[in-house]
């Protein structure tokens, strides 16, 4: 399991570095970068399925820690998948706006008695459509931000849970040691009590014999 975990963790870091190339890629190559990132993410998800099975087969004393490590990888790759989808949505809206702007600029004006008539209604409709697209993009960005914040909160919670589990494990180990000391002391006290009773009985017997 350790080898597959290290391999998957390395792939997650590689995808993170690939994400930085999205913003600098030109229109011709951005699709290739997106496809490469998605293929790597799919491969990571496939490895995570195998890791979940392997973690459930770990010894009981290692199983919980193994599952926590796999969950951490799962949260990281879900964060990357969300970031990729948000980028694709922004790129789609940007390309759509560019196409609509080019279509508007390419339209020919109509003439009427040597006067130029500009289609005001269509221009207003186009501006309204652009504003609606901007609002939709803002909503998508806000939604993506909320998702990322949720993943960060889950990551912090997972780390806190991991720490608590380790603290409880340490506490249980200390409690077991204390219990063993208490049991040993109780066993010794039992023999001391029995010895004291025996000595007391002997003294009483000798006193009775002496007095009589």
Automatic annotation (TrEMBL):
Predominant cellular place of this UniProt entry's protein: endoplasmic reticulum
InterPro entries per UniProt: GOSR2/Membrin/Bos1, v-SNARE_N_sf
Q: Give me any GO biological process, just one.
A: vesicle fusion
The UniProt entry's GO CC annotations, sorted and at most eight, read: endoplasmic reticulum membrane; ER to Golgi transport vesicle membrane; Golgi apparatus; late endosome membrane; SNARE complex
Q: Name one GO molecular function term.
A: SNAP receptor activity
Domain of life the protein comes from: Eukaryota
Pfam families attached here? Answer: V-SNARE_C
Q: Where in the cell is it found?
A: Endoplasmic reticulum membrane; Golgi apparatus, cis-Golgi network membrane
Q: How does it sit in the membrane?
A: Single-pass type IV membrane protein
TM spans, by residue? 191-211
* Keywords from the named record: Acetylation, Coiled coil, Endoplasmic reticulum, Golgi apparatus, Membrane, Protein transport, Transmembrane, Transmembrane helix, Transport
The cross-references to CDD domains, in alphabetical order and at most eight, read: SNARE_GS27 (cd15863)
Record function comment: Involved in transport of proteins from the cis/medial-Golgi to the trans-Golgi network.
| Recorded family membership | Belongs to the GOSR2 family.
Q: What is this protein called?
A: Golgi SNAP receptor complex member 2
Lineage of source species: Eukaryota, Metazoa, Chordata, Craniata, Vertebrata
